[in-house]
Amino acid sequence: MTVSIKSEDDIEKMRIAGRMAAEVLELIGDYVKPGVTTAELDKICHDHIVDNQKAIPACLGYRGFPNSICTSVNHVICHGIPSEKKQLKNGDIINIDVTVIYEGFHGDTSKMYFVGKPSTHAERLVRVTQECLYKGIALVKPGTRIGDIGHIIQQHAEANYYSVVREYCGHGIGLVFHEEPQILHYGTPDTGMTLKEGMTFTIEPMINAGKPHTKLKKDGWTVETRDGRLSAQWEHTLLVTATGVEVLTARKEESFD
User: Fold this and answer.
1) Residue 148: which of 159, 163, 137 has the closest Cα?
2) H/E element holding 39?
3) pTM score over 0.90
4) 240-253, pLDDT tens digit by residue?
5) Is residue 108 within 8 Å of residue 149, measured between CB atoms?
6) How far apart are alpha carbons 222 and 176 in whole angstroms?
7) Residue 9 phi/psi, 5° resolution?
């Protein structure tokens, strides 16, 4: 398994790509409201990336994906395709996943949004899933093993009576959208690859309210919970530093000091 260690020049470009991706998520929140379609959200994000940032939306055309962002609503786990027919309604939860390419380097991030007023159980699922991501991030430093990250995420999800999706995981990222290593969101402590300074990858736990089982729709992209219950996901792109971690896609509302 070959893992790329990024140079200072690479890292600076990834910082810019990461900040751009975070900016898109900061921008789109004001538009997530009842009545908007996921296609409208996609156009707003696309236009900002292309026209304002002068960057490239990585998802558009990636292995045939038809849009610039992924919009995963309620029981959709990941890779939801924006559509004119999908109009958001009060109480929905939606994950918006954005990847921006700047000078060849990728910044990949996603955030959960509430449409109007969420139910108590939806709000709890979204909060616990974000806590899973933050607990994983807190472990990132040279010497940590990938199994440690997966274990703490799994432990927190299952302690809250949720389940971890197994088929989809975090990934190395840089000039390539998806590269080694794979970052599983479940696992055993003190197993797997050891993290080294200069590695960049995503952590992006997908946590289900019900069972962990998934189903892929006929469109070849949209992944849903098999039992139809809610799912949530949060994602950041991370850099392993000499002493810990830098969150390359941190939004202004977040603090990782």
Assistant:
1) 137
2) helix 38-47
3) yes
4) 999 999 999 999 99
5) no
6) 22
7) -65, -45
